[in-house]
């Protein structure tokens, strides 16, 4: 069961996806369906300014 899932994930890997679509081994509809099924992680994002703010606040130089 794990091998089947691993092969499916590899098939939709962005590094291989375009090649497989061009060869006709994967349809554009399958790719669109996969992309639309991905969860929205926007609530978990961190901006660069937030990270830089944490770094400058926690580091003190004497």
Please give a quick description of this structure.
By secondary structure, the protein is an all-alpha fold. It has helices spanning 2-11, 14-22, 28-37, 48-58.
Describe the structure.
The chain is mainly α and 62 residues long. The protein contains four helices and no strands. The protein has helices at 2-11, 14-22, 28-37, 48-58. It starts with a helix and ends with a helix. The mean pLDDT is 81.
Which descriptors would you attach to this protein?
0% strand, 62 residues
Which helices and strands occur, and which strands form pairs?
Blueprint: H1 2-11, H2 14-22, H3 28-37, H4 48-58
- Proportion of beta-strand residues: under 5%
* Regions with little confidence, pLDDT below 50 for 5+ residues: none
Overall number of strands: 0
Rounded mean pLDDT is 81
Structural class: mainly alpha
Main sheet characteristics: none
- Global Rg: 20 Å
């Amino acid at each position: 069961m794990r091998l089947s899932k691993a092969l499916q994930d590899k098939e939709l890997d962005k590094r291989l996806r375009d090649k497989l679509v061009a060869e006709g081994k994967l349809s554009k509809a399958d790719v669109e369906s996969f992309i639309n099924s991905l969860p929205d992680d926007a609530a978990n994002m961190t901006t660069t300014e937030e990270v830089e703010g944490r770094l400058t606040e926690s580091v003190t130089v004497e």
